[in-house]
Specification:
By secondary structure, the chain is an alpha/beta fold. The chain has helices spanning 2-7, 11-18, 23-34, 37-40, 97-101, 106-113, 115-131, 255-263, 280-291, and strands at 43-45, 51-59, 78-96, 150-151, 162-164, 172-180, 185-189, 197-208, 214-230, 236-243, 273-278, 298-303, 306-311, 314-318, 330-331. Helix 2 packs antiparallel against helix 3 (23-34).
Length: 333
């Protein structure tokens, strides 16, 4: 695990290094308990302020078979540049001063009182990671679904890494196989900033209600700047159009078969840290389908006191940010 952390630093790893007093790291650890994706996502600093300019390789030199006394034309790889941005997510919390002053450890009490805010920010960030689209909400960042929004058969296009499970309408969900890494896909934080959600204690202020009444509160400010970039689209696979309403039916999507197909979409030269994400609905039916037939692909173990399901050695983690109400993904033209 130490080697993996050194090669692929997560949000918590970076927070521990950039905040010597441990405050941000403590907050990130709390968020990890509520959404495991934060303990998996590799992060790196933007190279241009709030934006990150990256180069994606789109083609490889093929070489030329040469005859004796025959020349060879120069060849080169092809690339294109992409620009990814960070979004700014903020919130203020406040606690009645009289209530906070009763606590034996005021700082600890303030943090526990802010748990609802932390969970809300965490849910927002996880949802944006999957469904954010700057073409629709320019203040956010572009997540996964907007990048893998068509399925197709052309192995040279990202739509090749979207598998169609056959669902139609708007009651679908997805399974994601992601390989986290700075050369595959990762989170971004602004250049020169602290990674992760930062907390500032604004101290005691006077709260004025709409009727003019006043009371003293302790106010806190939470700020989280985060973006997302895909360096190599081949290292993510989306199993889309899983019809949730039909999972009990005879024509339900064969989740095990789809996962096998998804794993074979990943290049042979595997880099990064692989994780499979699905919501609780799919996690349940994965177990049920595995029970109904002889299955050697899914294994079960205990990690930190919690049951862990793995597919071909890759951990499967529940992420409630993945919806059961996705619109059907269409074919690439």
């Amino acid at each position: 695990m130490a080697v993996l952390s050194a090669l692929y630093p997560t949000l918590l790893d970076v927070a521990r290094r950039t905040d010597p007093n441990g405050k941000i790291a403590t907050i990130v650890e709390l968020l990890n308990e509520q959404n495991p994706i934060l303990s998996d996502m590799v992060v790196m600093e933007c190279n241009n302020g709030m934006t990150h300019r990256g180069t994606i390789r789109t083609g490889l030199p093929q070489g030329t078979w040469r005859k004796l006394y025959q020349g060879v034309q120069p060849d080169k790889s092809t690339t294109r540049q992409v620009m990814d941005t960070c979004g700014m997510l903020e919130a203020y919390s406040q606690v009645d001063k009289a209530l906070a002053d009763m606590a034996p450890d005021k700082a600890a009490f303030m943090l526990t009182e802010s748990t609802a805010y932390l969970e809300g920010l965490n849910q927002q960030m996880a949802s944006t990671l999957f469904y954010g689209d700057t073409a629709v909400d320019p203040e956010k960042f572009t997540g996964l679904a907007a990048r893998y929004n068509k399925y197709g058969t052309n192995a040279q296009k990202s739509s090749y890494n979207v598998l169609n499970a056959g669902g139609v309408g708007s009651d679908n969900t997805s399974i994601w196989l992601l390989y986290w890494g700075t050369q595959t896909m990762c989170g971004l934080y602004p250049k020169g900033s602290k990674a992760g959600l930062s907390h500032q204690d604004l101290g005691e202020v006077t709260q004025v209600e709409s009727d003019g009444s006043m009371y003293q509160v302790y106010r806190s400010h939470y700020k989280w700047d985060l973006g997302f970039t895909v360096r190599d689209w081949r290292y993510a696979v989306r199993i889309a159009n899983i019809d949730v309403s039909n999972l009990d039916g005879a024509s339900a999507a064969d989740l095990i078969t789809l996962l096998i197909k998804a794993s074979h979409r990943i290049p042979a030269a595997k880099i990064g840290r692989p994780v499979i994400y699905c919501n609780k609905t799919i996690s349940t039916y994965l177990d049920l389908q595995a029970m109904s037939r002889s299955n050697l692909m899914l294994t079960y173990s205990e990690v930190d006191g919690h049951p862990q399901t793995r597919f071909r050695g890759i951990p499967i983690k529940e992420c409630d940010a993945i919806l059961d109400s996705e619109a059907a993904v269409s074919a690439d033209s």
